């Protein structure tokens, strides 16, 4: 499993002065989009954003307030999912396997079935010598069957 939370390099990039400021930002004024920064001005500085900041109860950390270099560590802590003042975990990191890391499951159960057939036994008997393999083979077979049902359902829709 890979933690899909922010990578340290991404946090450091976001805390760099001027990060993302090469993009033109616009502000809605009287129903019209106008550049947020006048032509030739330096542009955006780092700013705290998000209505949830008020719930943190930390002086100087409110939505719209400039993010100062002294507050970078608090920002890093918050982006890691922890309260900057108490260290309490605010959110769990999301964990998921990358779709690119997942293999097609169908060939293995088919090969196990074939090998079991050649030996005149069940797949469970074939892999019985390895305790974890029995559970894995069953889980793989159920997953492949479930995926086939989902594929058929998607084709009908």
Residues in helix, %: 25-40%
Uncertain runs are: none
Strand content: 5-15%
Quickly count the helices. 5
Shape: elongated
Major sheet: order of its strands? 1-4
Rounded radius of gyration (Å): 27 Å
Q: How many DSSP-defined strands? A: 4
Quickly give the structural class. Answer: mainly alpha
Largest sheet composition: 2 strands, antiparallel
Order of helices and strands: EHEEHEHHH
Any idea how many domains? Answer: 2
Instruction: Round the mean pLDDT to the nearest integer and report it.
Output: 76
Q: Cα distance, first to last residue?
A: 32 Å
Task: Give a concise summary.
The chain has five helices and four strands; from the N terminus they run βαββαβααα. With 157 residues, it is mainly α. The strands form two sheets. It has a two-stranded antiparallel ribbon. A two-stranded antiparallel sheet has the order 2-3.
